[in-house]
Amino acid sequence: MAVETIRWQGPCPGGHVALIEQTLLPGRAEIAAIHTLAEMIAAIRRLAVRGAPAIGVAAGYGLVLALQELGEAPTERFRERLSSAKAELAAARPTAVNLAWALARTAGKVECMPLDTPSPALLAALFSEAGAIASEDAAQCRRMGELGAELIADGSSVLTHCNAGALATGGIGTALAPIYVAVERGKRVHVWADETRPLLQGARLTAWELSEAGIEVTLITDSMAAACLASGRIDAVFVGSDRIARNGDVCNKIGTYGVAVLARRHAVPFYVVAPLSTFDPDVPDGASIPIEERAPEEVTEGFGPRTAPAGVGVWNPAFDVTPAELVTAIVTERGILEGPDRAKVEALLRDAGRI
Ligand code: MRU
């Protein structure tokens, strides 16, 4: 029922990545064929593929594209290119840690193979690991959906921010996964989607994918969230994340922090849904998370005519940080972390072998 956002098409070597060109949604649902590393980096930068887990899948396949382009190169040349391609991909977007995590995992698979392994075998290993990341992501989304669905009562109204659905992952999404599963199980769920300025992921993507799936959705502008929560319309907030610090602070799309403050003010539970690959054991707290700043034009003329005077100063951070104390629970594929804090996050990471 949910859309397929990204997949490898054809054999390896010789295939390419097919992904939904999200910049064209909701007007056109077109597939972009990505054949080279440069094309993949450009796709990540322009947000043709976006959302933390989907960026991770794209990064793994991006390395495969880079090495496939080399042909049957000597193994040393292959390893040099692997290292440079990894650095190029890592610089594409800074905040979603799934990107660096997927690069370390795919490249790591090859880096530990014997030095005389011929390049076709290295490429095969890289391709298999990238594919594993994609299929594991789909399974993790489903598991988070099953766990999170228990938090949604029949007849609920849920508010979400940005797009943390199928379009943001290799599966049925993170924040939207519990909604998909709850609906599958026969519950009635109404979704309220924040528009999500400046790039309108809520309006263009969440409203689109939920409508495609036949789930009831009402769109509001970001500035309406306070009135919406105050009116008692919302039973729970569900959002995704781009990076979760070791103390449980949650980085997500700009505007999420405001929604968390509002949810606390109105005693509405604020749930974050994210796989283990979104946790960053190297980041002690939210203040240490690098926040991407994007072009001013996204604010002044994002979708057509200029809506601000020429030359006006603009601040355009793409993400913000919600302190752990405002988070009711984090739903992961390994269980639900209620009242996340440093001790609980570290116990989870230790249990998963991440620290
Ligand atoms: O800039 P984007 O569209 O990549 O931002 C995406 C988000 O902030 C999502 O909420 C986050 O990646 C979680 S996606 C499952």
Describe the overall structure.
The protein has 355 residues and is α/β, with parallel strands linked by helices. The strands form 3 sheets. The chain has a 7-stranded mixed β-sheet with strand order 6-5-4-7-10-12-13, with helices on both faces. A 3-stranded antiparallel β-sheet has the order 1-2-3, covered by helices on one side. The protein has 11 helices and 13 strands. The chain has 2 domains: 6-142, Up-down Bundle (Four Helix Bundle (Hemerythrin (Met), subunit A)), CATH 1.20.120; 147-351, Rossmann fold, CATH 3.40.50. The chain has helices at residues 37-45, 52-70, 75-90, 97-111, 119-149, 177-184, 201-212, 225-230, 256-265, 297-300, 342-351; strands at 6-9, 16-20, 31-34, 156-160, 189-194, 217-220, 236-239, 243-244, 250-253, 270-273, 319-322, 329-332, 335-338. Helix 6 links the parallel strand 4 and strand 5. The longest helix is centred in the middle third of the chain and has 31 residues, at 119-149. The protein starts with 5 loop residues before the first strand and ends with a helix. Bound molecules: 5-S-methyl-1-O-phosphono-5-thio-D-ribulose (MRU).
